[in-house]
Amino acid sequence: MPPSWPCSTLHPDHPEPPEDKRGARQLTRRGLRHGVYPPDVGYDLHLTRALDWLDSEEDPLSLDDWVTFASASSALTRTDEITFRELPVFLLGTDPRTDPALYWQGGQVTVRGADEPHVPLLVAEAAKLGVRLVGDDHEVYE
Asked: pTM (2 decimals)?
């Protein structure tokens, strides 16, 4: 799901995808950040305090802060039907077959399975949590 929603294409402080410490272009789990994605490959969004979601561990959202927030949110529902490393998984809705799943990892929350109609609610939840909603390709949703 490369960016098609209203968003900045890249964060203003990151005009190009960042390079790793060796100077090589960083890769996502799916290949080069600006490549064409196969239609059957998912596209994740990230709730993060960092400018770039790959740097989330440098300015982390703690697991405790995430679980406290998500548990109190009327938009999110904790599910036991989906698991991720024995950590709590929340849904943006109530149906694990169709609603996006949110799970904490490495100082940020990954949103898996979101579509365009989910973005405004995710942006609102991000604002309440004091984080940004960022896509795999570094676009910031506002």
From this structure: 0.70
Place of tokens 């990892």: 105
Q: How many domains does the chain fold into?
A: 1
Element (H, E) at 123: helix 119-129
Q: Is residue 132 part of a domain?
A: yes
Domain that holds residue 56: 7-141
Query: Over its length of 142 residues, how does the chain's per-residue pLDDT go in tens digits?
Result: 444 444 444 444 444 444 444 333 333 333 333 333 333 347 899 999 998 888 989 999 999 999 999 999 999 999 988 777 788 999 998 888 889 999 999 999 999 989 889 999 999 999 999 999 999 888 999 8
* 64 falls within a domain: yes
